[in-house]
């Protein structure tokens, strides 16, 4: 499967606060902690045949357990009619912790996820395809490795795709000024809501529904 041949569904774009954002282009500087947030003892001794693991978050609370991915493509989707056609991680099926933040903004955002996103391992890297009717926002150190700048947040419109990790690109510095330690194999994806200096959400952990993608270490 190659995203080069995917058809733009021409879905409506709902831009939150920033009308000048360019689809699939850098939008905001992100000066946030960048190491993986999922360090709760679930890591396995080896990745076996997994090429990535997924962790779903609602604000600062992780919901459910890590989801290991072995197939070359995985769908991450919400509930509701039509979303169940995906094969992968259904966010509505995850077990919610008793102290999880069941607040209105989480409920409203989660209801918009719908078909969500597809993550695909291709010969030229890892690609994200936005299948939902809302934009998604992506932060990946690999996207700005060549520039070696502070991490940026990229906006991906409905029906569009973005290479979120290119193994051929030079690795970013392990530590960046004003940012601190960087995990070059950790990608963060927020559904519908952006974050950064141009938003009132300055940190990804302020986003109602977001996904952490932890890529397997190189073999």
UniProtKB/TrEMBL annotation:
Signal sequence extent: none
The record, for SMART domains, names: DWB
Record carries keyword Phosphoprotein: no
Instruction: Give positions of region: Disordered.
Output: 19-44
The organism sits in which domain of life? Eukaryota
Give me the stretches of Basic and acidic residues compositional bias.
Answer: 19-32
> Boundaries of each MH2 domain copy?
51-219
Q: Which GO terms describe its molecular function?
A: I-SMAD binding; transcription regulator inhibitor activity
Q: Which InterPro entries match?
A: Dwarfin (IPR013790), SMAD-like_dom_sf (IPR017855), SMAD_dom_Dwarfin-type (IPR001132), SMAD_FHA_dom_sf (IPR008984)
Provide one Gene Ontology cellular component: heteromeric SMAD protein complex
Q: Which PANTHER family match?
A: MOTHERS AGAINST DECAPENTAPLEGIC HOMOLOG (PTHR13703:SF54), SMAD (PTHR13703)
Q: State the name under which the record lists this protein.
A: (diamondback moth) hypothetical protein
Source species of the chain: Plutella xylostella (Diamondback moth)
